[in-house]
Amino acid sequence: MDLIQTILMGIVQGLSEFLPISSSAHLVFTSNFYKVFKNIPIAEQSTEEIFLDIMLHLGTLIAVLIFFRKDVIEICKALLQGIKERDFSHYNAKLGLYIILGTIVTIILALPLEKVAGHLVFHPAIVGLLLIITGLVLFFSEYLSKKQSQKEELGKKEAILIGLAQGIAVLPGFSRSGWTIATGLFTGLNRQTAARYSFLLSIPIILGASMVYPLIKIDITEAAGYNWTAIILGTIFSGITGYLCIKYFMKFISKFSLNIFGWYCVVMGIFTTIFFNIYK
Fold this sequence. Notes:
280 residues, mainly alpha, globular
């Protein structure tokens, strides 16, 4: 693992985590394209590569925390106040509960799919097919959102359904932001509310994964041999790119449709499926 690879993957992670194009798919594609052009066999990931993926997600977590820092602080304050007074009628307190509920639903669905997701990392052609499905989901969500009235506040039903969408998006190729925002549109949420909740809902999952996985899976003596310069640089690039992506995507989604990302997913999915079927 070298500097060029980690910086490239950091930029890809920062762009694709918050755009509805599947960051996990693009990390799989980038890693495997790099291996193909370097004549490296597409084999099982090393623990260093897995740890890099975790750190790249940590970079985008920092980006979303910085961008939504006021929202996060207000939600935490409202939750603590609600616990103290046993009153969760304030919308931010409700939103905090909905984030907790959505996270629980995500974990329940994602855990059984974790092994399948791990195997798909070595089958980029299948990941390409799943990316095509993501594109079709984006098309359908845009079509359906035009047929119904839109609301600004979500409720328990929306939180559960979006949590389920985030859970199934553990599979590479199923975009987390794409599926959660699309599900928000399916349930009648307006575009900005769906995107905001999608990004806030990512915080507990990414935080949990970046803390739990290294503690359980990484051998400290093995970690001492990692290329930490490359890992840290990749994480920095991931965070900076992720912040800029959130900033401009929130402006984009308020004015434009997701169809452009749908077309991208379909075209990219077809290309990668064909490419990795040829270079097995």
